[in-house]
Design brief:
The protein is mostly beta strands. It has one helix and 24 strands.
């Protein structure tokens, strides 16, 4: 695993982070982002390199799990310096994890190929098929992709084929379902990522519409991000996560940068791993001590940045 130790903050407006633009956006005049001190725990995991990382999550103990799609597997990078691949699910030859989440002693992953929700224990042993989405009586086939689990055990799932978000209760019944295809507030075009915010709201990456939307836990639309009057440089946001202070970090692989949306609704900023270098962030997760973990499909790596 290769780890980037610095990031470049960019002032965007309507500018693009993607390589090939006429010129990279200029750096801001403010304080540069701090460097991440090298951590032996990450350097010790150089023997396992993700092939095409799609998702990442972390727990309170500092362990980080990556959903890799090529080869399909889950990889855990432990805070004590060890790393391992999770056990392959029994009877799932087409297993392809599109997203992953940790709650308590369990790790959950969406298998987008077989349309299942799978579960492992914290040691990496496969436990069970928690849910076959074919068994949910919705009238239409569900195509699960994004995933998050809150502290009470509720699961939020994006249904990309039907442009919906599903919230399942602890008994795996549909508690809330909202959204349909469109461009108005409360509508989606291929929602790829979903996450619970520290306030208990739902943050949805409305990828096809190039924006984020925030909902109450009952599915009521609260706001669209960026807000009115703020330039939106996002192209196809894939996943987003909110910090305790309300700052939102967004992985946008098409724009090839991570966007930063301040809590006060100000101008959107962004960062890249290294000026001129390939960068394709597919997911973001906030860890301890202000670390932001980013899966980078371009360099087949898990990058670590100091953002707070």
């Amino acid at each position: 695993m290769r780890t980037s130790l610095a990031m470049i903050i960019l002032s965007l407006g309507a500018a693009s982070c993607a390589p090939g633009a006429d010129a990279p956006p200029p750096a801001t005049g403010g304080e540069p982002a701090s460097l991440l001190t090298p951590d032996a725990a990450w350097n010790a995991c150089a023997t396992i390199t993700p092939g095409k990382p799609a998702g990442v999550c972390t727990d309170f103990g500092g362990n980080v799990v990556v959903a890799d799609t090529s080869p399909p597997r889950l990889i855990v990078f432990r805070s004590v310096g060890a790393c391992q691949e999770f056990q392959i699910p029994d009877g799932q030859p087409a297993f392809r994890p599109s997203d992953v989440s940790i709650r308590g002693f369990f790790v959950y992953a969406v298998d987008e190929t077989d349309r299942m929700l799978l579960r492992w224990d914290s040691s990496g042993s496969f436990r069970d098929v928690l849910l076959n989405f074919e068994d949910l009586q919705t009238g239409r086939r569900i195509s699960p992709y994004g995933l998050d689990v809150d502290s009470s055990g509720r699961l939020a799932i994006t249904d990309v084929e039907n442009h919906k978000v599903l919230v399942l209760d602890t008994y795996l019944n549909i508690d809330v379902a909202f959204g349909n295809y469109g461009t108005f507030d409360g509508q989606f075009d291929t929602p790829l990522g979903v996450s619970f915010t520290p306030r208990g709201e739902l943050l949805v990456a409305d990828s096809g519409n190039g924006r984020l939307q925030v909902f109450s836990d009952s599915g009521s639309h609260r706001r669209t991000l960026p807000g009115a009057g703020v330039d939106n440089p996002m192209r196809r946001p894939r996943r987003a996560v909110a910090a305790e202070d309300g700052t939102v970090y967004v992985a946008d692989p098409v724009a090839r940068c991570v966007f930063v949306l301040p809590a006060d609704g100000g101008a959107v900023r962004a960062f890249i791993a290294q000026e001129g270098a390939a960068f394709e962030p597919t997911d973001v997760a906030l860890g301890r001590e202000g670390r932001l973990f980013v899966t980078d499909a371009a360099t087949q790596s898990l990058r670590v940045f100091k953002v707070m």
